[in-house]
Specification:
Layout: H1 3-11, H2 29-43, H3 50-65, H4 72-79, H5 82-94, H6 99-113, E1 118-127, E2 137-141, E3 146-159, E4 164-171, H7 175-179, H8 181-186, H9 198-207, E5 220-223, H10 227-238, E6 243-246, E7 252-255, E8 268-269, H11 270-276, E9 282-287, E10 293-304, E11 320-327, E12 334-340, H12 347-368, H13 381-402
Parallel strand pairs: 1-5, 5-6
Antiparallel strand pairs: 1-3, 2-3, 3-4, 6-12, 7-8, 7-10, 9-10, 10-11, 11-12
Length: about 425
């Protein structure tokens, strides 16, 4: 068994217990203030001036304490009144401090106090009223079921059973923004920023973590149910990042074992493989959202991805991957299909890693949204990145202050 597999197995050895919960609302209080006092000097060590370091801590505290939408005015109202509004606005939108070292410091701090079991990729969609904020474009959003003006970004979360927190971000910029020079200039988009797909954003946000930031290598958990997601899987694997990817049932695969049980034993869709080998289902005991336990059917099979799977090469010819199917209420009926190169990990440990996506979703709603992760209303590229970096720090302080001890993870859902 590989060193990575051993680490993940050991980290999940208590996985039959519920994943710890999170707070229902930001709560600074004495513990939160003490944490911010401890974390502030670590986060803002790269800022040269003491007044900038102070402004960073004030902004984070304002994100936690301000009620309602986290506008500059509301933030200033709880940290210094009207006199602080202009200086805080300049600190976020007009200053020159680099947000990358701040994110790196946050990620390294969390790796020490709450070592991640995985890095979870989560796209973020922000509906907007107009088209003037940086990156906003009119498009169809499947989650909303309509065409609307949205800002899109990709966050990478350091995730464990004790805590999840976003540590890196990539703002998606449509081609229309990059080709329109006056618009690009007004938003202060750097010359080196080029057009990217959401998959490109995910890749760039993930790859720097173990390389440039010195974080531990951990599995990347992501949704790859479209061609862009599959391209991201291929490129992560080429970069030697372990991957656990949710896939579409139509993805063509080749069974590498139990071939006699699979009709044709050749190129078969993931759905057909699951249907053909139902006798391999095994239960995993898991804690549901109500706190009770239940047995979730889990099925696994070593497979090989054909050289051209959906016209994409996902790995070297003949290399084994692991296909996992997680069942719903009816035994043998899959709700989710996942593909991974972590072939040495038992299915139960892999199942627990996939549940981190649900923990991230819940923490986004209960913490990130409440500390204003989507509330930046400025028009500059740099301002967006600085705000979302400080909101990520506010998320970390809130989660750590709460102790992450409230309820278990919500029940899995299809889709």
């Amino acid at each position: 068994m590989s060193g990575l597999a051993l680490h993940v197995r050991d980290a999940l050895s208590g996985g039959d217990a519920p994943i710890a919960g999170t707070v229902g609302a930001p709560a600074a209080g004495t513990v939160g203030r003490a944490l911010l006092d401890e974390l502030g000097p670590v986060l803002f060590a790269s800022l040269r001036r003491s007044d900038q370091r102070d402004k960073g801590a004030q902004y984070v505290r304002g994100l936690i304490d301000a009620r309602g939408r986290k506008t500059i005015r509301n933030i200033a109202a709880v940290v210094g009144g009207a006199g602080a509004e202009q200086s805080l606005h300049h600190f976020v939108a007009g200053s020159t401090w680099d947000w990358v070292p701040v994110r790196q410091a946050l990620a390294q701090y969390l790796a020490r106090v709450a070592p991640p079991q995985a890095y979870v990729v989560r796209p973020m969609v922000v509906p907007r009223a107009g088209q003037h904020l940086v990156g906003v474009d009119r498009r169809f959003v499947p989650a909303l079921g309509q065409v609307c003006n949205v800002q899109q970004a990709v966050g990478v979360w350091a995730a464990s059973g004790d805590l999840t927190c976003p540590v890196n971000w990539r703002l998606h910029l449509p081609q229309a923004w990059l080709d329109n020079e006056p618009r690009r200039s007004r938003a202060l988009i750097p010359d080196g920023v080029d057009a990217e797909t959401l998959g490109d954003c995910a890749l760039e946000a993930v790859l720097g973590l173990p390389g440039r930031w010195g974080l531990p290598v951990r599995p990347v958990v992501l949704d790859a149910r479209d061609a862009d997601g599959l391209r991201t899987v291929r490129r992560l694997r080429a970069a030697r990042m372990p991957v656990l990817a949710r896939i579409d049932g139509g993805l063509p695969l080749v069974p590498a074992e139990a071939a006699a049980s699979v009709p044709g034993a050749g190129r078969v869709s993931a759905d057909r493989l699951v249907t053909a080998v139902r006798e391999n289902w095994r239960p995993v005991v898991w804690s549901g959202h109500s706190g009770g336990t239940r047995a979730v059917p889990v099925w696994s099979l070593r497979v090989r991805v054909p050289a051209w799977a959906g016209r994409l090469v996902l790995g070297p010819p003949g290399e084994d991957l692991l296909l996992l199917a997680f069942g719903g209420p009816a035994r043998g009926r899959p709700v989710e299909l996942w593909l991974t190169d972590l072939v040495d990990l038992p299915p139960a440990a892999l199942f627990r890693l996939t549940r981190l996506t649900h923990r991230v979703e819940r923490d986004f709603e209960r913490i990130s949204d409440r500390v204003g992760i989507r509330d930046f209303a400025g028009r500059s590229f740099d301002g967006w990145h600085r705000h979302i970096t400080l909101a990520s720090a506010a998320h970390a302080v809130t989660a750590l202050a709460a102790g992450a001890v409230v309820g278990p993870c919500p029940r899995q859902r299809a889709g």
